[in-house]
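Page 37, continued from 36.
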């Protein structure tokens, strides 16, 4: 009951429903599960791993990488993802004031957490550059995890738009599709290797 009230004001959105996830020919996860678990999993991964990873980078610097087109693109994508997440938060506040209705807490908390996570990801990208990291396995896993979780929601939103078009929120659907596209771009960029760092042993050995 707690999560149901968290996901919907009238508790109409259950966290898990076997009839829609298992006992059906077209399985799908509930909106509550998508707005909580699928959003929180990549966020928790990065927030839990970031302190350890940043300490490792602090003590294992490999030089310094100048701002390149690749690094600028990674930073721009992370910043745009941050803006998209916060636009959903601001829309929820606007919707609450405009319609004078109560908003489910998940519509405020999940995009806020996701926005802060994107800001952390952008910071890590820049810190990696300052520490001479040419490619990051930590960020690659984060973008891959975020994209996989978003893919489940992407499919669900398409099914909902085709089956129940009257329930579609144009703003949230549009921002999610843009968010999904930028996640795909971020994953591709994270697969590319940046230039060699300055003042590193690798440059001297070459």
């Amino acid at each position: 009951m707690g999560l149901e009230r968290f996901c919907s004001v009238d508790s109409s959105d259950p966290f898990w429903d076997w009839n829609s996830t298992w006992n059906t020919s077209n399985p799908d996860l509930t909106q509550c599960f998508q707005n909580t678990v699928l959003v929180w999993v990549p966020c928790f991964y990065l927030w839990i791993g970031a302190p350890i990873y940043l300490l490792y980078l602090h003590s294992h610097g490999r030089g310094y990488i100048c701002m390149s087109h690749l690094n600028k693109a990674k930073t721009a994508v992370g910043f745009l993802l941050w803006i998209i997440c916060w636009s959903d938060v601001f829309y929820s506040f606007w919707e609450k004031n405009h319609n004078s209705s109560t908003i489910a807490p998940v519509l405020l908390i999940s995009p806020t957490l996701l926005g802060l996570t994107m800001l952390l990801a952008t910071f890590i990208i820049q810190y990696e550059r300052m520490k001479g990291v040419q490619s990051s396995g930590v960020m690659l896993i984060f973008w891959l995890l975020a994209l996989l979780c978003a893919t489940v929601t992407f499919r669900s939103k398409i099914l909902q738009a085709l089956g129940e078009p009257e329930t579609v929120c144009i703003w949230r659907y549009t921002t999610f599709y843009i968010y999904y596209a930028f996640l795909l771009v971020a994953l591709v960029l994270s697969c590319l290797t940046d230039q060699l760092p300055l003042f590193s042993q690798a440059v001297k050995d070459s």
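Helices lie at 2-7, 18-21, 31-59, 69-99, 106-130, 137-163, 170-190, 201-205. Flag for discussion at group meeting. The radius of gyration is 20 Å.
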